[in-house]
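Interim report to the steering committee. The following record documents the input for Pyrroline-5-carboxylate reductase catalytic N-terminal domain-containing protein (541 residues).
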Amino acid sequence: MGEESKVPLLKSELAPHNPDQGPALRVGVIGTGNYALALTKRLTAMAGCDVIIGSRKPELRRASLSGSGACRCGVVLTTVRECVRSSDLVIVAIHREYFSETLSEIAHLAAGKVVIDVSNRETRAVGQSNAEYLESILPEAAVVKAFNSVSAFAMEDLGDSGNSRNVYVAGNDPEARNRVIALAQAMGFRAVNLGHLQSARWMENELLSVFALWKIPIALALAIYLLCWLFVIYIYWIDRPTPRYSWEQIFIKVNNKPVCMTAITLMALTYLPGHLASILQVYYGTKHRRFPQFLDTWLKSRKQLGLVSFILVALHAVMSVLIMSSAYFGGWFHKRTLTLPANLTLESRVTLGLSQEVMTWRGEVILMLGILGLLLMTLVAVTSIRSVGDSLNWGEWRAVQSRLGHVVLVVSVAHVTVKGAEYWWRLGFPKVFRSAAFMSVLIPYLVLALKLAFSLPPLAGYLRNIRRGWERPGARYGPDNTERHTGNDGPFMGTGVLVSAVDGPPIKLSGSNSGSVTALQMEIREDDTVQYPDSKAFSSL
């Protein structure tokens, strides 16, 4: 390597190379930007690799790297041509627009080698990914997409072991994918095998999504909250000769009602789409027909709906504690009176109400159910955190998200019912529909009724058979039979898939878009919903 130059770079003592294992892996990094240097640091410090940096202008970059103040011992800086020729594995850390001019003339040097693309896009694309474009320039190389989901800061931070970070890996050559997975693990990351290189399209587009799955749940929550506020204003101010509350109470006391109504409604809407999916599967007589687009989007938003509901439940609890007194919740406390007999001062007997802070059984039951519901919902919400969810196997995760989740809904409905049942009975029909509490539990009651129906014979066994692959004679497959799933080679219509994860539980996918899923390495699970990598739904079917 006549043009190469040694530039000081940190050679970490954390991962010294063991000579008994043969020569260290020589990794070529094309590029000298921040991300390329962060890669170099982690490759040498944690993976024990020998790194060769390739630059189009090595002499110019040598001066800037030497003056950066960082120790870069044992790393070679050379030309791109020499970097590719001398490396066992090559990482391309330059932008897409420089792929052709940098690599096209030396494509023959990359023949038979594993080439990793770490680039990302600035705008979403439907067609060819950066990795597929790189493969067209280096047709004889085994191109693999990886590391694009890890920032330069996280890559460089050696204090972060990286085990909580997923590195998605996609490539057409299984052996090349396995080599990159092994390298990612050596660098301290958790590798997830996404199968063929076509999955790189999802990998690149996913990073451009800014809270994509949160937009609909937040908008829905705001819309429900606004409707609840309008309903509260109508029943407490407009539909009364005299207002029930003063305008001074709108911030906590009155606002607590639409917050509570929105929270329990969103909680019910978290579990409702799963039951609607069950209804459609029973109606279709097969699990191999796609759900409508609105239901598919709804299913993918369940985690976010549940978490927004949890935040509102916590807010409701705090607001209730702030106003917890007999002045606001008179029906929850025992009433004590003082009667003054008639005397020289008083012409007749006078009865005075005294403040009493001892709760009735009803008030204590309401509080007990509220506290229990909040604690159980906290457990459900905590398992939505990736590190916690990944520590659970499928059975444990589903038990918490689905079964415990429905228990939370039961407790929450009981909390509202105990609070308002006596008042609902006094109102009677149809005035009961003017009760905020009664209106807020209608959808939750529907969800619990559907849960009960699908948990008992005959629907329970019938639905279980459908999800295990049985099809009713004359099953409805839609306008044509092209949507029918005939095995592992066809599209997945509402069935569950799992992306194989290395050294960890599988990551559940969500959605029924077969175009974005069929390229992945998957395993069918009999009654799962489909959910994109990186997020478990707040509840399951």
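The longest helix spans residues 394-427. The committee is asked to note this result when reviewing the revised timeline.
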